[in-house]
């Protein structure tokens, strides 16, 4: 969500091509940081069938 917000804030005044390039850059940052680790946790069983015991307790939902 941080990358989505940052992308939206940075797009003010950009033409469409530059705005899309900016969105892609922020999307790749999110993908590299979160997607692979999340997929690995899911493959290991986290979050399947209501089993959230292997999920981390980091982040705002657990504050």
| Low-pLDDT residue intervals, each spanning 5 or more residues | none
Shape: elongated
Biggest β-sheet strands, sense, barrel: none
Whole-angstrom Rg: 16 Å
> Helix and strand succession?
HH
SS-derived structural category: mainly alpha
Q: pLDDT average, as an integer?
A: 78
Give the oligomeric state.
single chain
**Total number of β-strand segments?**
0
Distance between the termini: 17 Å
Percentage of residues assigned to helices: 55-70%
Q: Compute the number of helices.
A: 2
Strand-residue proportion: under 5%
What does this protein look like?
The chain has 63 residues and is an all-alpha fold. The chain starts with a helix and ends in a 20-residue tail after the last helix. It is elongated, with a radius of gyration of 16 Å. The protein has 2 helices and no strands.
């Amino acid at each position: 969500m941080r990358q989505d917000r940052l992308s939206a804030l940075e797009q003010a005044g950009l033409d469409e091509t530059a705005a899309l390039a900016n969105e892609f850059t922020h999307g790749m940052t999110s993908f590299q940081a979160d997607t692979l680790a999340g997929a690995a946790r899911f493959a290991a069983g986290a979050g399947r069938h209501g089993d959230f015991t292997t999920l981390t307790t980091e982040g705002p939902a657990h504050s």
